[in-house]
């Protein structure tokens, strides 16, 4: 599984400016991607999973 963590850098340290996971999810849905699993609210900690054309799950997970 490939994971993206908005709000964190490569060392899991907070970054100041980032796209909220809910905004990323909206863009993915608008582009025609199916959300396989989601958890959380409209902002703050949340996550969702999409599956790429090869069947690999991609996790978008925001911790703050």
Query: Low-confidence stretches at least 5 residues in length (pLDDT < 50)?
Result: none
Helices and strands, in N-to-C order?
Answer: EHEEE
CATH class: Alpha Beta
How many helices? The count is 1
Question: What is the general shape?
Answer: globular
Structural class estimated from helices and strands: alpha+beta
CATH architecture tag: Roll
Spatial strand sequence of the major β-sheet? 1-4-3-2
> What integer value in Å does the Rg equal?
12 Å
Mean pLDDT: 92
Counted beta strands = 4
Q: Tell me about the largest β-sheet.
A: 4 strands, mixed
Percent in helix = 10-25%
- Assign the CATH superfamily: 2,3-Dihydroxybiphenyl 1,2-Dioxygenase, domain 1
| Count of folded domains | 1
Gap between N and C termini? 21 Å
Strand residue percentage? 25-35%
Report on the structure:
Helix content is 16%, strand content 30%. It has 64 residues and is an alpha+beta fold. Strands 1-4-3-2 form a 4-stranded mixed sheet, with helices on one face. A hairpin with a 5-residue loop joins β2 (37-40) and β3. The two termini are 21 Å apart.
Annotation keywords:
64 residues, 1 helix, 30% strand, alpha+beta, single chain, 4-stranded mixed β-sheet, 2,3-Dihydroxybiphenyl 1,2-Dioxygenase, domain 1
Q: What's this entry about, in short?
A:
This protein has 64 residues and is of the alpha+beta class.
Task: Show the helix and strand layout.
Layout: E1 2-4, H1 21-30, E2 37-40, E3 46-51, E4 57-62
Parallel strand pairs: 1-4
Antiparallel strand pairs: 2-3, 3-4
